[in-house]
Specification:
Number of helices: 11
Low-confidence stretches: 6-13, 164-172
Strand order of the largest sheet: 8-7-9-10-6-11
Number of strands: 11
Oligomer: single chain
Structural class: alpha/beta
Strand content: 15-25%
Helix content: 40-55%
Length: about 325
Amino acid sequence: MVKTIHPGTEGSVFPGILDKNLKKLEARLGVDLGLRGDQILIDGDGKKVEFARRYFEKIHELADRGHSLKEEDLLIALDLLEEGTATALDHYAPAEPLTLSRKSINPKSLNQKAYIQAIKSQDLVFGIGPAGTGKTYLAMAMALTFLQNKAVNRIILTRPAVEAGEKLGFLPGDLTQKINPYLRPLYDALFDLTQYEQATRLIEKGTIEIAPLAFMRGRTLNSAFIILDEAQNTTREQMKMILTRTGFDSKLVVTADITQIDLPQPRRSGVLQAMKILANLKEIGFVYFNDRDVVRHPLVQKIIKAYQKAEAAPE
């Protein structure tokens, strides 16, 4: 079945942006797409073609309302439509970019947009999901935005060094050299988002602190944006400790991939317990990511889906 969409003024929205994302949209919609002048050709199964037609009409309505649409808006709109919340598109507006010294950041999925909104509005947010979904990266971007806007005085980045176990003392070098490999992902996100010299200067001044979770014990963290990364590897005691460190005018973002717990007793992960205990507190935000939110190589999405299927199947 072939359907042609005549979007009228669509030519002002789609040249380039649709052409660039044609293959990605074809995979998500399950149809074949083609561009012919100001027409969009849709070919495939009847129901899927009808869904795709409805999708492009909704996109056109957004453009008609004066929104300047980007690649991520095409995907977020598709997320909304797939979840059966088409009415939400009637009130949809592209997210304001997070403008940092090196780049501007836009959420690339509906869950990423919800994550940013949750961090803006709530003081404690859990970002739960597989690797590559932007949990740490977006939390870092938000932390730098808050610091830039003087909403906090410092950023504290921490994660458990569970891979090292009790063997840190046997590693070469001073304490900083011993723990740096376990904190490297936080440095990577920081240096990707802001100028190297600026980030280094902020670290030297103590405005940005990157340290193992054990260093947080006994402290009260006021006017700080705290990111606890890889929280699936916290013990229950560690999780309770960090959750009770937050002081006045502070935010805490906890990121975790509960499919990759490295603790000797995975079921005793602190984040699993926290998710159960805190689930009903409306002051706390929980955002759950899935394979559709992966922003790494497209193959990563397929790998995650394959593992999810294998893990769900009875042995």
